[in-house]
Structure formats: C-alpha cells, structure tokens
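Pinned message: reference record for peroxidase
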Amino acid sequence: MPGRRLLRRHRRLRRARRQLHPQLQEDQLRRASGRFDGNVSRANDTLGQNLPPPFADLATLTKMFADKGLDQTDVVVLSGAHTVGISHCPSFSDRVHPPTSPSPNMDPTLAAKLNQTCDTPNNATTTVSQDYETPNALDNQYYKNILSGKVLFTSDAALNSSETLELVKNTPGQTIGTQPSEQPW
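Predicted structure (tokens):
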C-alpha cells in the first residue's frame, strides 16, 4: 500500500531529523545512534558520488537513487530534508543568473530577492535559507514551496514534474491549514 510506505519513510525522516538537527528536536531523549559502518568521512565521497548535485534533473535524481536501491518516492521524501539548512549562492546560481533571465519555473519574487542577495553567480560567501518560509522547522512547507516554484535547487524544482507531482501533493500534512502538530508523521 503506497500510503503506508510513504508514512513509514516520513517516520524515518523524522527520526533522522532528531539525530541530525538537535536544535529542532521536540524531545531531548538520549538514544544510541550514529554510523556503525565506518569511521572515515570524506567530502570527496559525497557530492556527485552519493549526494545528487543541486542542478540535477529528475532523470539524474531517479538514477542516483536507483543506484542505491531507492525509488522516486524516496527521492521525494528524502528531498524534504531541504526544508531546513542553508545554501551557498553558487548552488542555485543556474536558476537565478541564467544567460537570459531567471528560471521560468521559479517564483519571480523569490528570483528577484535571490538575485539581489546573491549579486554574482560565484558569490560563495553569502548563504540563504533553503526554506525561507519556515527556515528552522522540519515541516511540509518544502513541498508547498515546490508546488509554488519557491525552491532554490533545480533538483527540487524537478519534483514538480508529472512523474512525481502526485507524491509531492500527497505528502502527509499537505492539506491546506494543517499544522505541523497535526501531521501523522
């Protein structure tokens, strides 16, 4: 049943949120966690190899996740982590500073604000919140931002495609007016 599977994935994402973002925790329970599969972590092993680049299209995202045994539902659910955190301007400069004008699938108000904040495409010192609506909350605002064109990365905007649109729309708590405390995950 797709709904139950999606709900389980959201529960896993919530647990990961508690472990990775202590400042967002609702409870401060101590529990054993962490990686037990190795003791080496290298930046070279992440972007492009294990983490999709921010400019990836849906086909690239789907392939990278499939290579790890995951499907498009996993792409949508795990991309929800972009509701917290910051990004450096070059990560989304292809959407804000393209050769002619801002990306047509980006909200024009957001594009103008980002264009002003990130005055040059290679401005690597300036950062912006990945979710400017609720930057310090792990909530479903990210999915609402996808639907309204208010996401930074090409990889996030790619989720507003016919292949993944129903998954984005049916994310738990996506009903208009639902408060984070009412979400089932």
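Pinned by admin. Summary line: The longest helix spans residues 2-20.
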